[in-house]
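ok trying this again, last paste got cut off
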Amino acid sequence: MSENHDALGANSEAEGAVTRAQGFSACGFTAGIKESGLPDLALLVSDRPASTAAVYTQNQSTAAPVHISKAHTANGSLRAAVVNSGNANCATGEQGLADAREMTQLTASLIDCEADDVFVNSTGIIGHYLPMDLLRSAIPQLQPVPDGGADFARSIMTTDTFQKEAVATFEAHGVTYAVGGCAKGAGMIHPDMATMLSFFTTDAPVPADSLDACFRYAMDRSFNMVTIDGDTSTNDSAVILANGAAGGEPLTGKSLKAFDSALLAVSTALAKMMARDGEGATKRISITVSGTKTWEDARDVARTIAVSPLLKAALSKYDPNWGRILMAAGRAGVAYDLDRVRIWISDLCVFDGTATGVPEEEASAKTQGAEVFLRMDLGEGKAEATAWGCDLTEEYVRFNADYVT
C-alpha cells in the first residue's frame, strides 16, 4: 500500500477509508461543541455485530469515555462508535461517566442496538463537562451513510491540519477484503499509546481471539513507534471492527497473515501521517535502529532517539549533529559496544566507531527535505525497528502556550 501523500501528508486515494469495507456507514456532524463551528461529532456503524479489539492509553489520568469503552469492548463485539471532538470529557468525575454512558444510550436508540454495543470516545480540552444539551439534540439527527467515511475522519480532528486516512486490500480464498482506518493526532504523541484516536474497519471474517492478537501486533509496530513531544493523552484509544460482510470462511493460517500485513500497512501509514502533522512540525523524522539482539532492543533505542528534544531542535534548523543521536541511544537502557556502532544520515555514514569526517555542509543538505532518514546499527545482532517523529520548532511552543488561553 502506498501513502501517496501530497505536500501536507494527505492521502487522497484513501478518502473515506473507514467505510471502504462492506457493511459500514458513517457520518460527521456539527453539534456546536467547537467554538470554531467545525464538525465535532462522528458516528461509525456496522450493519451487523462485528468482532472487535481495542487498545487504550496507559496514562493514569484516564478520561471517562475510555472507562466506558473498555467495559464495552471486553465482550469482543460492537455495532458502532460515537465520538465527539472539542471536549475530552476528562477529569469530570461521576458526571463525566454518566455523560459518556448517555452518549452510548442515545446512539443505541438511533441504530437499534444495546448501549453495550457502542464504543464511545471524546477528544479536546481536559476539565470541561460535555455540553449534553447539544449532544442530546445532535445524536438523534445523525444519518450514517456508506460513503460517509471522510466526514467521520474530518469530525474527529482537533489540532490536526489534515485528515488521516489509509486503506489496503488483500485476498484470501478467492475473496477480496478491505481494511480501512482513520486517525486524529498531532500533539501529546508518545508510545503506549500515542496520543490519538484511531478507528479501523474490515469486512473480513476475523475470529475475535485472532483479531486481538493481530491488532496488538500492529499497534506495537505503528502507533507505539510514534512520538511528537513525549507526552501521552488521557483519551488515547484505537479500535477495530471486523464484521465479515464480504463473506468467506474465518481467516486462519496464510489468510490471517495476509490480513495481518494489510492491517499493519494501514496503521503504519496513519502513524507516519501523525508524525508528519506534529504541531509546528516542518518535517518527519524516520529512525531505523538495526543490529540489535531483539526487536524490543531496537524499539527502545529508536523510540528514545525519536523523542530527544535536542535532536528534534537541531534538525529543525538543518543541523546534522549526529552526536545527539549517539547521546540519546546511550540512555535507552540497551547495552552495546560503541566501537561497533554506525550512524547514517540518509545515505551518508557519519559515524563508524569514530567520526567519518563527512563535511557538515554535505550532511546538512540531507536534513532539508520533508523527511529526514536516520539509521543506527549497533552491531550486536539482526533485529531492527523503525520509529517516527518530527522536528521541534518555535511554532510548537507558541501553539501550546496559547492552547487554552
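PB: full thing came through this time. The first helix runs from residue 64 to 73.
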